[in-house]
């Protein structure tokens, strides 16, 4: 299925995130290392959303295309010129909706960006019921036909009950509660429609100031789609560790050639936060796995907060026991280095401890 990437920090040239790293999200689209060979490539379009650091309270920009991300020359050119403090990137492997730009993530509404990795099981069976509960503005909002965009319409509908969705910014607590209400409503619709297949709901939303993302599945026995985060002070090419030029979060440098990257930590305070379906580096210590049934928040002050999503599918144990068979079948599981060598693609680079 899809892969997503979130960056928040001091402005960075997009190329350092989406094209230059040897395991960038674009390279993951066709060469997703440490995952099963049978999984599909992410060739059904892509999208990149960002905010202009020089324009206060700016609405986001989005570049989308239906070509594979790795072969789009305009994406590579733009990535070398655009600098932003907050980036959403997404490569798509379609599960619902036709191949069209309207169906490519992320989507914009006012100051908000939204994207999704996963799928809503049995969506066609309750799509009309979901639509019937929307105010007219949000019923007419979707231009495509994916479950992900309709989930965004539902989010906006819930947000409109407590705030103006066209506001410039929102308290992160409000975005969090609206996200949880959106998931709750989808869960209710699945139950009402008699859908037993799990829905994989890794959602992400931002207003340019805060980020709220989830790793969630409406199942007490299945694992959610993979999601990781990394924090530090600078995101560096491997050459920088040997005294070469660093890619510092404090200024916009020109892009380097494709290379192995590292998250460098020189301060207790986070200057960079990355959230990704699949790690961008092969250094195990760079990344932490986000637990299933979790909402993760990046605040405007760069604090990273995690809260459990406690419902009937939450496991109240220190070591939850969940099967990865379902997400492996959907191509949404990241295979760790501890997995059986027979399951790792031959010749693929593995975690470095």
From TrEMBL:
GO terms for cellular component: cytoplasm; glutathione hydrolase complex. Residues 2-353 form the Glutamine amidotransferase type-2 domain. Keywords: Glutamine amidotransferase. It comes from the Eukaryota. One of its GO terms (biological process) is glutathione catabolic process. GO terms for molecular function: omega peptidase activity. This is Glutamine amidotransferase type-2 domain-containing protein.
